[in-house]
Amino acid sequence: MLEIENLSCGYGDKPVVKDVSFSVRAGEIMCLLGPNGAGKTTLFKTLLSFLKPLGGTVKINGQSTAGWSRQVLARAVGYVPQAHSAPFPFSVIDVVTMGRTAHLGLFAAPNSKDKSIADEALHSLQIDSLRNRIYTELSGGERQMVLIARALAQQPDILIMDEPTSNLDFGNQIRMLEQIRLLSNRGMTVVMTSHFPDHAFLCSDRAALLRRGLPFLAGSVKEVVTSGNLISAYGIDVEVAEFTAASGRKVKTCVPLMRTDNKSLKNVLNHGSP
Amino acid sequence: MNPKRKQTSAMPSQPAESAGKHKRAFRIILITGLPIVVLLLSFSVGRYSVSLPQMADIIRAHLLGLPDPGPASISIVLLHVRIPRIAAALLVGGALAAAGASYQGLFRNPMVSPDILGASAGAGFGAALAMLLSLGPAGIQLLSFLLGMGAVALTYSIGSLVSRRGGAVLSLVLTGIVISTVFSSFTSIIKLAADPDNKLPAITFWLMGGLSLVGLNDLAILAPLVLIGLTPLLLLRWKLNVLSFGEEEAQALGVNTTRIRIVTIICSTLLTATAVSVSGMIGWVGLIVPHLSRMVVGPNYKVLLPISALYGASYLLLVDDIARSALTMEIPLGILTALIGAPFFIVLLITGKRGWE
């Protein structure tokens, strides 16, 4: 369980994000939304202790993480960065085995047990076949899966995912969200960022919204992802619609409404920021 | 992502496996065979050629306390000149390659060599200064070593000041370039001030690098210092893998990056300053040997670091063999490592797997 209380974070002594409070229960998915520059990355960096909080506390299972060593923190929180390139052509199994670092002594290298935990992580994501491939030769989606496997090998309670759907095509985005849902069904707590409010409807239990200059919002998806809140956060017209699928399942979705006449477009471009 | 595509990519695993076995056998031969051949070759090569049985006889006689079997000149050459020199080449080569491999992981950049933080420039200035002050061989080594360490300490403290707002790795590299330039300029000033008849040529020759002056007593200092520098790096080598993914990711994986970085820098600097203080400026070993090793065994430091040290030792020994036997006059080692290293490296870049992305 992750609890954030009155957290303010930023660089130096200038807060970028203030008065952030929310909690995510074990096995829940929380989707963090917000426009570019609202402080999603800053908040993430503070959750992962890359940045010291300027105020407030981060609690994991009831204990404040202040003063935790990197190793202790890494056993509780796993981080899945956006798919990236590595400077050296490590094999996939080497990359995933690096997830075991938090469980190793200072001078130790992973043993066969750590290797088999890494193999299990690959297997649970059904990417066994990537095992002996070279990480730097994989596609963006495959790299993202490998980085998730690495975080799973870390065996944390909480997974922090930075835009897990970025750089993925339409189909792979949804497959990624299904994979995240599967992880949460197995008991993993997930905090993820996304640029698509629809992703909150599709796969999360809770949502949070960062808005520049406005108070932080957190709560159930239904409370947070509303047309009014999205308009105030992104500065565009959005309506939330409900749609009944052929199976009878009800799905909510966000529909952005573009202004098309010249006069209001000019207004938008003059007053709204990109 | 797409499960169907992965199935097809996993299909040809049978033939690939046996090809993999051949490849592994080839690698093992390359890893163990190469250094042994170079080592045996080195004992017999030189002005006085010593055959292998002759050498075995002499060594066995000395170990067992028997009377010297061969001509006295041969056993003196072997025991007091050749063996110390071979040992020094192995230690210096291994030290430079291990330091280079560690730095490439730490700075996440395959273009990094062990002198990037100013160790060589500082050590070179120290040696030049000692020669200007006529301090003698022990003084040259000591001052060279101290200023090599000092230059990196200066880089580290100024770099920490620069990186207060983040970007620790880049700040260090940039500061290192500045400090190197400053110390190279100091060396130039010394050359300008040195007596052009005897001291200037001595300084110039020393800076070109070489192992011709190494004796048994130098080994007594060189060997323990290299061991002290190498051991922590070998123990921490798994963490270097994690560090090569960048500061934040390494932290998220549970590594205290500040601590590992400072230990790596201290050990690599110890290795580089020790090497330079004994052998002068020997470039290229720390840059290309890790590359070569990465092509053979892959980037995992668990294997890469020991292999880099082994290959660095063999490579410098081989080049030193050429330096002392190719011409009647000894060729400075630093010139040869560059002249052999550069074209060899280009060929590797063109034909081989690159070993980085």
From TrEMBL, chain B:
Keywords: Cell membrane, Membrane, Transmembrane, Transmembrane helix, Transport. It is a multi-pass membrane protein. It comes from the Bacteria. One of its GO terms (molecular function) is transmembrane transporter activity. The chain crosses the membrane at residues 28-46, 86-104, 116-135, 142-162, 168-193, 205-235, 262-289, 301-319, 331-351. One of its GO terms (biological process) is siderophore-iron import into cell. One of its GO terms (cellular component) is plasma membrane. Pfam families: FecCD. Its main location: membrane. It is found in: Cell membrane. Belongs to the binding-protein-dependent transport system permease family. FecCD subfamily. This is Iron ABC transporter permease. It comes from Paenibacillus rhizophilus. The lineage of its organism: Bacteria, Bacillati, Bacillota, Bacilli, Bacillales.
